Amino acid sequence: MESLLRRELGYVSVKATGHSGGGCISQGQSYDTDRGRVFVKVNPKAEARRMFEGEMASLTAILRTGTVKVPKPLAVLDGPGGGSVLVMEHLDMQYLSSHAATLGAQLADLHLENQRLGRELQKEGGTVGKGSGQVDRVFVEQFGFDVVTCCGYLPQVNDWQKDWVEFFARQRIQPQMDMLERGSGDREARELWAALQLKIPDLFRDLEVVPALLHGDLWGGNVAQDSSGPVIFDPASFYGHSEYELAIAGMFGGFSGAFYSAYHSKIPKAPGFDRRLQLYQLFHYLNHWNHFGSGYRGSSLSVMRNLVR
Known about the structure:
A hairpin with a 2-residue loop joins strand 6 (149-151) and strand 7 (154-156). It contains nine helices and eleven strands. It is α+β, with helices and mostly antiparallel strands.
């Protein structure tokens, strides 16, 4: 790995540190270089490059908003023994505690950033992002992302769509159902999904959804803090409904009342929030079913039964 980093990134000196980490998808290791400490994520699978390129694009997009801190991505490289590696800035992170409220406020700022750009666009007569001296980011009018991103190791379809309900049904839930069909072929899940599709539009009646840049996989294991404040990492970004972000956050814990209070002080709950949150949690239960097996079947079916009542 040291020779790869020297050759591809031009470092003069590279030395592994005692810092390592990883989850159920990839492993990581920190290295001291002559240009500072970096963190290298490694995955041996052939499809790892697509996953890491999506993560790099996600980190870059969040970084450019200037709202919430993420590790600065540096490069995606072919791994020395196959697979791929993602090189990023090393951050000294610890468990999120004293900065939970700050994270809530900053996450809301991230979700409101595209809306803010839209208002600037109107104010400046359509000149945002065009010409010298103008904002270098444009208002995003559709739902999706420029590249494939992976929630876990499964790729997400991010083709641009004008309609959020259509995007979510076709490009989030349907691919998960298709994977289940190829695997277990669960009849009850198939029948519940057929009924639920007819009810989804009712959950969005009289609701305007402005595309928001999302982290996309914001569970407690993907947030932390360093000496400067909160940090989020391992994103699977796309432009979607801001409420979607809070679904997995509420499933596995790790977020305090201070986090939610700060967030909702900037983005109040809209009517129907709780049922839409269940709908968004359905994606994550299905994604976990497809990743980890039928232990998540009961939760998936329970959510669908609640929503079709």
